[in-house]
Specification:
UDP-N-acetylmuramoyl-L-alanine:D-glutamate ligase; 6-stranded mixed beta sheet
Length: 266
């Protein structure tokens, strides 16, 4: 057996709930071998982000080269990039290797509310990474920032924003409904051929640290295993819903605790 390999390019969360650590847990939980490229070190926990240390862009590029020159990567998840130079490095490195599906999670703000993306990096995301993505996974506030618009309210406005993001060059957009209202959390998968609404019960818990990171990593895991986009998204949403539902069992930290990545096993 040859295990499928997925690569996470993202920031490190020393408390283990988000970023690289959440992505590697998500890959492992779903039967995929995870590799990582660290773009930034964060001093954070379930309460907040205390400090961010940027990794030099040339070292980000060197990490990508090291992974791709040896490992048979089948999918890439990109999370926190924080600065334009990191975006330049990622794009330059990925161009040197055969293309694989890229899932871009435009991480801008931590669950605690701390900002993780410099304002000048938004344009780099919009102009360089989004056009390379097989899928982008913004929540409603992130979609609004990318489009420089107000946060969408209601299905028609959410889908309309998703369609405008699609026009930036990515192959698909997943508009996440976690910041919405109502008894169900509805995500909208928007592709050139149409839209699919994916609904799950909205769960009442404050332990949602790393939810977006984990969902995008789970989608990348599905793509690495050869799933089509809709199947990968459906499976990832079902898995993250289970991880959120089981989050209160962990009892990690004093603030927004992590989801339970291994809820299927213990």
């Amino acid at each position: 057996m040859t295990i499928p390999i997925a690569l996470s390019i993202a920031g490190s969360d020393c408390s283990g709930g988000a970023g690289i650590q959440a992505d590697l847990k998500s890959f492992a939980a779903l039967g995929v071998y995870g590799a990582s490229v660290i773009t930034a070190l964060t001093a954070q926990n379930t309460v907040g982000v205390g400090a961010i240390h940027q990794i030099p862009a040339e070292f980000v590029e060197a990490q990508i080269d090291a992974v791709f020159s040896d490992l048979d990567v089948k999918a890439v998840k990109i999370g926190m990039v924080a600065q334009p130079l990191a975006v330049d490095a990622i794009v330059a490195a990925l161009r040197r290797f055969p293309p694989v599906p890229v899932v871009l999670d435009p991480v801008m703000v931590a669950t605690s509310g701390d900002r993780l993306l410099a304002a000048d990096a938004v344009a780099a995301l919009r102009g360089q990474l989004i056009p390379r993505a097989a899928l982008i996974t913004p929540n409603l506030p992130e979609a609004a920032v990318l489009l420089d618009e107000a946060i969408a309210v209601g299905e028609s406005a959410i889908v309309s924003q998703g369609q405008r993001l699609l026009s930036l060059g990515c192959a698909a957009v997943l508009m996440k409904g976690g910041h919405g209202e109502g008894p169900d959390s509805i995500d909208y998968l928007i592709e050139a051929g149409g839209m699919v609404a994916l609904s799950a019960p909205r769960l009442s818990t404050r332990n949602t640290h790393g939810t977006g990171c984990s969902l995008s990593a789970a989608i990348a895991a599905g793509l690495a295993k050869g799933c089509d986009m809709e199947t990968a998204v459906r499976q990832a949403k079902a898995w993250i819903s289970g991880a959120i539902a089981a989050a209160d069992r962990l009892g990690v930290g004093r603030g927004h605790g992590p989801v339970h990545h291994f809820h299927q096993f213990y």
